[in-house]
Amino acid sequence: MQAMPESRWPDELQKPDPTRVAALLHDFWRELAALPDLLAREEHLLCATTIHALRACVVEMMLALNGIAYPAGTRHLNRYLGPSQRAALEKTLYAPTAAGTAPVANVWIGQAVALVVIYRWYAPQLIAACQLSYPATAETQTLALLQEKLPDWPTIITTD
Description:
- The chain has about 160 residues and is an all-alpha fold.
- About 60% of the residues lie in helices and about 0% in strands.
- It has six helices and no strands.
């Protein structure tokens, strides 16, 4: 996805800080690594907080790719994201219809997997745009932990 033209944004918006983008790329995996422990202890409120933190990382990554830093105090985020970006994120808000019969852990896992897919779409583009290094070690370690601790975590996640 191409970055949106800067002329679309009001003058008060800032360009993304590459240091912040690098932190987001790592924070995503750090947050995700907490999920197995939270699920094991049935800490569903903290699972929701973790999923929210993952989504917040992804939103900020999307904005950075669109050429802006997260606008401080904004109450109008939709105008800074494209329709496909909003649609992808909004899909991570919903629990599957089978949630009433499936273990609640699967709802959290499903949302986390959806956010990993979005992350993997945006991260390489951000890395190229900001000339950063991909946090491959953090990703590999986190995915290995999830596969070891969560029997329902998929063995392969693709963006295709």
